Amino acid sequence: MKKLFASALAVAVLSGTLPLATATAQEPTGSVQPIDGIAAVVDEDVILKTELDRAVANILGQYAGREAQLPPREVLERQVLERLVLVKLQVARAAGTGVRVTDQEVDQAIAGIAQQNRVSPEQLRQQLAREGTSYNDFRSSIRDELLIQRLRQRFAQSRVTVSDSEIDAAMAAQANSGNQYHLAHILVQLPEGATAEQIAVAQKKIEGVKALIEKGEMDFAAAAVRYSDSPNALEGGDLGWRSVDEIPQAFTSMMRSMSPGDVTAPIRGPSGFQLVKLVETRDASQAAPAMVTQYQARHILIRVDDKTDDAKAKAKAATLQARLAGGADFALLAQENSEDPSSRGKGGELGWFTRDEFGPDFGAALAGLQQGQVSAPVRTQAGWHLVKLEGTRETNVGDSNRRAQIQETIGRRKLEDEWNRYLREMRGEAFVDVRVGKAAEPATPAAAPASGS
Questions:
Q1: What pLDDT is recorded for position 65?
Q2: Given the DSSP bridges, would you call strands 378-379 and 272-283 parallel, antiparallel or unpaired?
Q3: Which long-range contacts does 314-322 make (Cβ < 8 Å, 24+ apart)?
Q4: Where is this protein primarily located (predicted)?
């Protein structure tokens, strides 16, 4: 997995194989031995010891030759187990709020992964087998990630808004600075309503980490892996490239005065204390051209609402699919049957648009089609769709799309903050019983001298 499918979905990459089944393993009684141990109980679900072992082995494989950057085994297990706990909680929350993923949607996602890696679905299956990964477990991992993606999308729609004034300010900032920044960070997290003692301990820890880095005893990435509480700790705290509108205003002025390799002093934020490293900068004009793939397509929508339940809508879409397979004209069927008033009169014509403009599920189905091909029924929040790909083109993002692009980046930054807060709340409310050996916290480094912070 780590070699061929580095771009696969996050849960699959993390765990390699993350079973969805809620195993009913029990504690050993008498002479009876369990088939598999339980690493943790998460509300009404469990994480098996084999799941944890596979996930840890995946991380060790990613750090082959760089094992010294990883924390001790027991600390690494704690970090990975915490990720698996969050996956379980998000999947359970998605299911509990009515988010669903069909087998067909999982198949489409796997086909997309295979296409990205330039292999066929069957070759993907064979590669998984050679790497010792169960195909059924891989499917379960993909299903989990799709559920989490939809939960996150629903959360964003209800919690995140971007005003016109924010977009105007970001466009003005971009006009004055075309730089992009490659950043990394280390987070020492604070709970909601942290006490003075908790704040003091966290501050001492972040100052100690900063001192280790300044003395050259540990590089920034290794310190992030060992000490950061951020979800991206195992990636060395890497935040990737950010433009000005994607960086909180509190950091923007700092970035402009820093040189590549510089690390900020500890910064107190809503989540805790952070160190931010400027890895490198580049002129946005020297970055890769903002080329995007646009799609031209038609669709037929059968809505799911109070009058039509999911099963009936899907059955109607399947009937229309059969008629199309028999030679029926797509545009005519759209005019007669589609429940999208904006496109029905045009035979379902949607014009030119980017992949995820109508949502990730619609986009994933579209990306798997050849020109002239019609999809199987696709479920979105609106209902069931049949999608016909008319054509594709590569186009440069012009000024007409600039506001939408900036709105997306600001929304993504806001979502990241809100989503992390939501995950902390979810974790705090959950019942989690860790059954494996209680992993020791990483030793807190000595606080840096007052003059060095």
A1: 80
A2: unpaired
A3: 314/377, 314/379, 314/384, 316/384, 317/377, 317/384, 317/385, 317/386, 318/377, 320/386, 321/374, 321/376, 321/377, 321/386
A4: periplasm
Dist. CA 59–CA 399, nearest whole Å:
42
How many CB atoms are closer than 10 A to CB 131? Answer: 16
**pLDDT tens, 184-234?**
999 998 888 889 999 999 999 999 999 999 998 888 998 998 899 888 888
281 shares a domain with 323 = no
> At 283, phi and psi to the nearest 5?
-80, 125
Same domain for 139 and 171: no
* Domain around 339: 291-396
81: domain CATH number? 1.10.4030.10
- 436: tokens are 């494996």
Residue closest to 347 by CA, chosen among 329, 360, 334: 334
- CA dist 168 and 244 (Å) reads 13
Query: Are 144 and 11 contacting, i.e. CB atoms less than 8 angstroms apart?
Result: yes
Please give the DSSP secondary-structure letter assigned to residue 230: S
Q: Is residue 2 part of a domain?
A: no
What is the rounded CA–CA span in Å between residue 385 and residue 258?
Answer: 50
- Same domain? For 245 and 216 the reply is yes
352 strand-pairing partners: 296
